[in-house]
Amino acid sequence: MKKYLALLLALVMALGLCACGGGTAEEPAQEEANQTEQTGDLEKIVITEPVRGYHWAPVYLAQTLGYLAEEGLEAEFQSVSGTPPFAALFSGDAQFTLVGIESAMIVNEKGQGAKVLASTSEKYPYSLIGATEDYTTLESLRGGIVAGGVNTSGGPYSFAMACMNYAGLTPETDVSVITMASVGYAAAIEAGELQAAVSTNPWAAKILLDNGGQVIVDGTDDAVIEDIIGSASYELFVLMTSDEYLSANPETVQKVMNAVAKAMQWMENATPEEITENLLPLFEGAEEELLYDAQYDKERGITSYTGYHTESGFQAALNLTKLAGDITGDLTEDQIYDESFLDKAWENLK
């Protein structure tokens, strides 16, 4: 009898273990299946950039704050060197690109077709910094050399040209505007080979100023920049996609804009410390620089919290891009911008 009871107890325990084990194994599997059914796999999008820069912060924050994931998307940011970042739009290697407004004008005049979906800045963030205390005015640069960024089709070069034009200095005759990467500024200044340079962000300007540089033109000063380019607003940094992708994938474009609008809304009310913390995943090791840029941005109001452009900003960009020799014709706002997705994103948030 004892032997029989022992066998019966063992059988009951075995059946119980099987039942418990089956329930434990099935529940996570079912939970995972339900989660997959609810969220699905995230659609990957590639966003190119010439460099990782603070002034596109709303787009980066759309990723790091999880707003893109909420829309079912995951962004991969690729810094491109050697070729324009927007080239990947037309080869199909990227869906979106972060560039300056000048790039949008260049590709559209060439007939490639691209649209700015949102502007991430609303004021001119550049400054022209004199190398030493001997160079504090535009006139003091006569006969000297000015560095205007890495290429002639970029915003820094256009800004340098606009400053020279405003002062009545003729390039190649009165002053030489050259291309140079910012990493080479310090050595060129020390060697006496550079009298001024365009800084493209607050941190870059700080480095030059800490080494004896002098502000000649502060692009974030509304009165100063309006006098030079004809507009206090200048929506320089933008998010762009190709006309072809826009036409074929309006749903994905709308999802991106929903996320970017949410990021702008969050960023407007966030502290510099909060912005820095949430950008760090994409700016490894740059905490000091990010915090400085974020504080400067909050003080000067450079970031756009709406994403829209202004007519005066567009006209100023058009004039500067023509002045730099990158385009020759007069483009229209409709050729450059499609803010209808931005409109819908804000409607959804309201």
Task: Describe, in plain words, how this protein is organized in 3D.
- The chain has 350 residues and is α/β, with parallel strands linked by helices.
- The protein has 16 helices and ten strands.
- The strands form two sheets. A five-stranded mixed sheet has the order 2-1-3-10-4.
- Strand 6, helix 6 (155-166) and strand 7 (176-178) form a beta-alpha-beta unit.
- Helix 5 crosses helix 14, helix 11 crosses helix 16 and helix 12 packs across helix 13.
- The chain is globular, with a radius of gyration of 27 Å.
- The model is unreliable at 1-39 (pLDDT under 50).
Structure summary, number of beta strands: 10
Largest sheet composition: 5 strands, mixed
Low-confidence segments: 1-39
First-to-last CA distance:
77 Å
Main sheet: which strands, in order across? 2-1-3-10-4
Q: What would you call the structural class?
A: alpha/beta
- In N-to-C order, the SSE pattern is HEHHEHEHEEEHEHEHEHEHHHHHHH
Q: What's the helix count?
A: 16
- The backbone outline, from C-alpha atoms, is globular
Strand content: 5-15%
Averaged pLDDT = 88
Computed Rg: 27 Å
Helix content: 40-55%
